[in-house]
Amino acid sequence: MAANQPQPLRPAPFSAPAWQLAPGLIIALALIGLVLLGLGALLHTAGTLEFEELWQSRYLRGVVWFTVWQAVLSVFLSLLIALPVAMTLARLSHFPGRSLLLRLMELSLVLPTIVAVSGIIGVYGRQGWLTSLLNGWLPDHGWSLYGLNGILLAHVFFNAPLAARILLQALESVPAPRLRVASQLGLSGWWLWRTVRWPALRPVLPGVSALVFTLCFTSFAIIMTLGGGPRATTLEVAIYQALRFEFDFGQAAILATIQLVICGSLWWLVFRKRLESSLLPDRRFAEPVSLKDSPGQGLGRVLLLGIFSAFLTLPLLAIALRGLPALWPASPMPSIYGQLLPATGRSLLIAVPAGLGAVVASLFTLAAANKSGNRILAAIPVTTGYLPLIVPPLVLGTGLFLLLRPQLGNGAQGWVLVSLINGLMAIPFVLQVLRGPLNAIDKNTLNQADQLGILGWYRWRWLYWPRLRRPIALGLAYGIALSLGDFGVIALFGSPGQPTLPVLLYQQLGSYRISEAAGTGLWLLVLLVTLFALLSRVARPAPGTNTEPAPAAAPEPRHA
Amino acid sequence: MLELRNLCFQYPDQSEEWRFHFSVAAGHCLAVRGASGTGKSTLLNLVAGFRAPKSGEILWNNQAIHNLPAWERPVTSVFQEHNLFEHLDVFTNIGLGLHPGMKLSPEQKSAIEQGLEQTGLGGFGARLPGELSGGQRQRAALLRAILRRKPVLLLDEPMTGLDPDARAIIRDLLVQEKASGITLILASHDEEDRKILADSNWNL
Question: What is the C-alpha to C-alpha distance for residues A401 and A492, in angstroms, rounded to an integer?
Fold first, then answer.
């Protein structure tokens, strides 16, 4: 065998443990500091007012009550749909269109609410497809999209697929041997649920419920567009109105504080039960195991998935079909682009830094969380991931708005803030994408890397980067997409004269320029699809590496 | 000489304690015997530095190594499986053993190519581990271990589950290594492996 002298050990670049710990901690502390600053300003403003007096106000109590009520209903309805869908998808691990459906379910995570709303209006609104059908059959059905109906419909449209996706991941993480045992014993129905499904779902359910509750509790664009009046106003919308129209900063501060208390206590409960890790399960590869079927279940499943797919697809179809004529009319250069293109530029200017920031912050945060042995130190980066859920973006925005109000002269400063808050907002989702693949590297592999001295930069380059490039691209796409679709924070800081795409869309919806709105919606949708397609192309694995574990590396060793 | 002096280990949630005390001369092979669950892998992981002992010492040529991190110890491990990084091709897997950042000299590159030829893996450099058979993967892992030129090889069931031909090839490689002065610690269930390779035995 050829002789090779052992090389003198030169430490790998950035291999000192501090490189894994310090940047994440610094970023996390800076973000926590920013949030505390915003909260401080909020409490300072709220503190000078009489809480009691404002609490007497019927309007305020009504707002709080309605906010909680619609969120609870939304959670209930979303889970009611998500559970059977997830179980059906877990059961049917191979059918044509399954991955397309999964993609569609993930799309709802990044689909800008305002775009979806315009699609939902196109299907269920006064002139919508389904409403027109219904008009034919039942002339006095009394259906109106605006109000609680529309809010719930839109919330379920967004959150049922999200919840189903997380539940499906939990179901797919059931170890194959357990499923095989269930299959061999011929378990089905109640016993299958008790032995296999429920143990897998139970740990994630509280987290999913809390997530959906928070998203619905803090939803803004949907209430703004579909709420249809003061009877259906939520805290977020009330804050916005207080800040931008009534200039009642005290009331905004109190509302934001109430919202903070409710969201904060909810997540505190979830944290206390140590459910943080189960909210975002790792993605594993499930081997198909055939289970016993009760008669008639097959048809029911097809029907369920068919209706669910239609529910998700119809609004998108409405956007596409109504938007196309606006973007592609007979005249060579339609006037719509005069507003559309500058808005696109502004949107990208905010969204791209937000996405990049979210990915970088998430990576360092995860590294620091994994590195620190100390419990308190480890808690700091983990907290960053949940900050945006505990402190909703609009609350944070309100605080910073109150703090910076005197100085906030021009739009540019506002945009920097919007970009920053959007980036922070994206961190939980980017973390969700990155955490699984990052932690999926097993102890054995890490041991070997240690023995070979693959540390620091080398570890990143050879161990993590090849496996993470796709999740990173996906996380970046999520981050950019979330910011592109942001309508809450920008409504607070932006100026109507210089709209981003979602603001433009809102303005068009508000002034009943429906075909232009559809055009803008479609444009934003195409922009997002392009973004995802582009980033997944960039992230295609380099030759000689493979990000998917090869068949032989499946969780169970196959003995020769 | 590799020496373990009163090396003590205990899993955090278990009362049972393991104690190891033996020495192996350079160029010798010590076979570790014992049923599964008696701590063969634990022993090898302690020497490699993947686990920390409760007390006791590990010495290589009279120098204490038990406080060194895994990458500074004079050892290379070969396990029953999962020795290779599944997402990297065979050449890169071996190259990372020579330089942890793949900064390889032309000599090192040709040494890898030559080694692949000699172990019957010529032309497999660009394959991913998942595309090889178990025996081929194990040869690649052993080639990496050998090219690292660390004086101690820790072998944890390296031939278990392989077909007779693959076993024979790997045994031959190990015999050569031993002859060139490498110290081996072999954990194996197989009587024949031990008969061919081992100079002494340690019973757990």
Answer: 8
DSSP, residue by residue, A67-113? HHHHHHHHHHHHHHHHHHHHHHHHH----TTHHHHHHHHHHHHHS-H
With 0-12 / 13-18 / 19 or more C-beta atoms within 10 angstroms meaning exposed / middle / buried, residue A147 is: middle
Q: A427 to chain B, minimum CA–CA distance in Å?
A: 27
Chain B CB within 8 Å of residue A453 CB: yes
Contact A544 B130 (CB under 8 A): no
Please tell me the predicted confidence (pLDDT) of residue A547.
41
Q: Give A273's pLDDT tier (boundaries 50, 70, 90).
A: low
State how beta strands B29-33 and B200-203 pair.
parallel
Check residues A473 and A548 and name the one with the higher pLDDT: A473
Chain B stretch 40-59, residues whose beta carbon is closer than 8 A to a beta carbon of chain A: 45, 48-50
- Beta bridge partners, B4, equal B22, B58
Residue A547 is classified by DSSP as S
**Under DSSP, is residue A455 helix (H, G, I), strand (E, B) or coil?**
coil
CA of residue A122 relative to chain centroid, distance: 24
Residue B109 is predicted with a pLDDT of 94
Please tell me what DSSP assigns to residue A544.
T
Residue of A nearest to B159 (CA): A560
Closest CA to A166 of A192, A195, A203, A199: A203
Do residue A1 and residue B108 have CB atoms under 8 angstroms apart? no
pLDDT for A385-428, tens place per residue? 778 777 878 888 888 888 876 565 566 778 888 999 999 888 88
Taking a contact as any Cβ pair under 8 Å apart, which residues of chain B between 64 and 103 contact chain A? 69-73, 75-77, 79, 81-83, 85-89, 91-92, 96-102
Instruction: Write the residue in B79, B137, B161 that is nearest to A559 by C-beta.
Output: B161
User: Which residues numbered 14-33 in B keep a CB inside 8 Å of some CB on A?
Assistant: none
Residue in this structure with the two tokens 């809390």, named with its chain if needed? A210
Expressed in angstroms, the distance from the first to the final Cα of chain A is 28
Residue among A4, A454, A458 minimizing CB distance to B108: A4
Indicate the pairing of strand B200-203 with strand B183-187: unpaired
pTM: 0.78
